[in-house]
Amino acid sequence: MEMTTTLLPLPLSAHHSRGRVMALKMSKEGYDACGESSSPVFNVGDDDGAVDCSSSSSSSIISNSSSDNTSLSKKILNLAIPALISLSIDPLMTIADTAFVGRYSSPNDPFPLAGLGSAASLLVFSFYVFNFLATSTAPLVASKRAAGDELGASLVGGQALSLAIVLGSSLSLILLVYRVPLLHVMGTTVTGPQADEYAEQFLVARALAAPAVLLCSASNGVMRGYLDTRTPTLILLGSNLVNLALDVILVANLGMGPRGAGIATTVAEWIAALCFLAVLSGKLPTASGGGDGKKSIVRRSDALDNQRDKDGGEVLLTVTPLLDLPAWEDVRPLVVASSAMFLRSIVLQVAMSSAAAMAARSTPTDGMSAVSLGASASVAAHQVALQLWLLCSFLCDALATASQALVADGKGRNDVDAVRVISQTIFKWGLALGLTLSACLWVGTASGFLIDFFTSDDVTRIELGKLLTIVILAQPLNSFVFAADGVLQGAGAFTYQAMSMALSVISAFAMFAVLEYSSFGREILNGSDSDTLVNVWYALITLQALRGITSLVKVVEKTGPINLLGKKAP
Fold first, then answer.
1. What gap in Å lies between CA 398 and CA 311, rounded to an integer?
2. Do residues 67 and 217 lie in contact, with contact meaning Cβ atoms separated by under 8 Å?
3. How far apart are CA 409 and CA 223, in angstroms?
4. Alpha-carbon span 170 to 122, nearest angstrom
5. Are 268 and 242 in contact (CB under 8 A)?
6. Could you tell me if residue 398 is inside a domain?
7. Cα 407 to Cα 491: distance, rounded to the nearest angstrom
8. How many other C-beta atoms lie within 10 A of the C-beta of residue 209?
9. Least confident range of 65-74, 107-116, 200-209
10. Which of 12, 241, 261, 495 places its Cα 20 to 30 Å from the Cα of 190?
11. Three-state DSSP class for 52?
12. Vertex 474, ends 258 and 499: CA angle to 5°?
C-alpha cells in the first residue's frame, strides 16, 4: 500500500522566498481534473491515490463518520507502523551497544557495562530533554496544514531545524567541557575508577553526536507533521545497520569496549542527520513520493512557479533551516509549545537520571567484598532494564505519533467527532499493544533469553532478574500513558502535560523516600531490608501511574479538548 503525503494547495505570495515548505506534490492532471475552483487533496492511505476535488475546508484525511472504523484503523496503521519502526530504531542502537559491551567484556566484569550505563543515562537526559523538537513541531505543522496554512507550516519546520542546530552545538560543548562533574553526579565515583574511565570514553564519543541527534528529532517532527513516517523509517533503519556493523568491527573484533560503541553510534547518528537534511532540502527523494519515480522534495527557491512545475507538472517546495531571524509572531507558537514540552521533558529526565544515580548507590554485595563491584552490578542491571523499558516505550509512542498527527488534523478542522473517535480507537489499540509487549517480555524472561543475551556477570544477572518482573507488569500502563500523550499533544495541551508531569515526578520521589527511608516503607516491604534498586523502579511505576491518572482526567473532561466519553454532535 502506498501512503501518499496529504498536502493542501499552497497560495503563494511575494514572501515565498522565506518559506521552506516540504513536499507539496500535486500532479498537473490533478489540477486539470479538479479545475480552478476546487482544491485537490491526496488522501492518506488510499490504495489508488485518488484525488479528492472537494473544497479544502470540507476535505479530511479522516472520515467524519464515526462508524467507519475500518478506514480509521487503516489510517492509524499507515502512520503507526512506520513510526513504530522508526521510533524503535534509536533505542535499538543503545540496546546494541549495551549487548555488545555486555557480551564482549571479560567474564564477571561489570565495569564496562556499568560505565556505559552511567554515561548513557546522562546522555538520555541530555538528548531527550530536547524531545520537544519533535513533539511540539509535529502537531504545530499538522494543524497549520489542516487549516490550509502551508507557508506557516514551512516556517515552523525551518525554525525547528535552526533551533536544533543551535541547541545541539551548545549541548555538545557542555557535555565535553563538564563531563567529569556530570558523570560524578551520575554516581561514577561509587562504581569505581574503572567504570568511571569507561563512562568518560563513551560520553566523549557520544557528545559529538548532540547536533545530529537534535536534527534528527526536529526533522522527524517536521515529517510527522506532513504525515510522512516512511522516510524517517528508512533513514533510521539505514543508520541502525551502520551502527550494528560498526559495533561488530569496533567492539566485537577490535575490543574497543564502550569507546567503540560510542563511536559506532555517533557515526550512525550523523549519517542519519545528513540524510534528513538532504531529503528536506530536496537532494534525496522521500519514501512517500509518487509512483513516477520523481523526487517529492526538490529545492525550488526563486525558481518556483506560481502554481506548477513547468518541467514535471508538480508544485514542489522544501523545508530548510532559517538563516534569517523570524518575527516574534511567526515563532511564538513554537516557542510557547516548546517551552511547555521542554519543562515536561526535563522533569521526566531528572526523574530517570535520578533513578540511574540512585542505582549506582545501591550496593548489593552477594558475598563480594568490593562495594564498587556491587554498585557496578546494580548500574549494569538498571541499564539493561531501562533500555528494555525505553524500547517498549518507544514502541508505544508509535501510537502516540499516529494520534498526534490525526488529532491535530481534526482540531485544525474543528471536527470534534473525529478527534473523539480517533482518541477512542488509539486507546483500544494501546491496550492491545501493552498486553502484547508484556507477553513478549514474559516469554523472554521465562526462557532466560533476555538475561543471557545481555550479560554473563553473575551479580548483574541476579539484580536484573529482580527488575524484569516490574518491567513486564508495567507495559499496559505504559501503553496508555504514551497513547494519552499523543492525543493531548495533538490537541495542543502542552502546558497541562508539563504541570501533570511535575506532579507525577514529585509523587515518584515521595514514593521512593517512603520505601527507602521510612518505617512505613519497611512495613510495606514486609519488614525486609530496603533494596534501593527495586525501590527506584517502584518509584518509576508511581511516576507512570500518576501520568496515567492526570492524562485520563484531561481526556474525559467534558469541557476539555477530547471529551472521550462524549456523544456525537447532532
1. 38
2. no
3. 14
4. 16
5. yes
6. yes
7. 6
8. 25
9. 65-74
10. 261
11. strand
12. 90
Name the grid cell of 427.
486507546
Residues present in the chain in total: 570
Q: How far is CA 462 from CA 52, 114, 376, in A?
A: 60, 15, 13
Quick check: 417 and 66 in contact, CB under 8 A? yes
Give the type of residue at 77: L
C-alpha cell at 134: 519533535
Cell triple for 287: 519514501
Residue 290 falls within a domain, yes or no? yes
What's the domain range around 462?
Answer: 69-356+369-556
pLDDT category, 108, cuts 50, 70, 90?
A: low
Please report, for residues 360, 361, 424, 462, the alpha-carbon distance to residue 364 in angstroms, rounded to integers and kept in the order given: 10, 10, 45, 10
Structure pTM? 0.62
Residue 310 identity: K
> Which residues, other chains included, contact 160 with Cβ-Cβ below 8 Å and sequence gap of 6+?
133, 137, 218, 221, 222, 334
Residue 161 lies in a domain: yes
Cα Rg of the chain, angstroms: 24
pLDDT digits (tens, 9 = 90+) for 305-352: 333 344 444 444 577 787 665 555 655 665 665 555 556 556 665 665
Cell of 300: 525550488
Q: Which three cell numbers stand for residue 509?
A: 520521589
State pLDDT tens for residues 175-226: 999 999 988 877 777 767 888 899 999 999 999 999 999 999 888 888 877 8
The grid coordinates listed for 35 are: 479545475
**Longest C-alpha distance within the chain, in Å?**
82
Q: Burial of 122 by CB count in 10 Å (0-12 exposed, 13-18 middle, 19+ buried)? A: buried
CB 456 within 8 A of CB 107: yes
Contacts of 284 (CB under 8 A, 6+ apart): 275, 278, 295, 297
Count: domains in the chain: 1
What's the grid cell of residue 397? 509512542
Each residue's pLDDT tens digit, 339-349: 555 565 566 65
Q: Which three cell numbers stand for residue 151?
A: 507557508
DSSP code per residue over 57-75? TT--SS-S-TT-HHHHHHH
Does any domain span residue 565? no
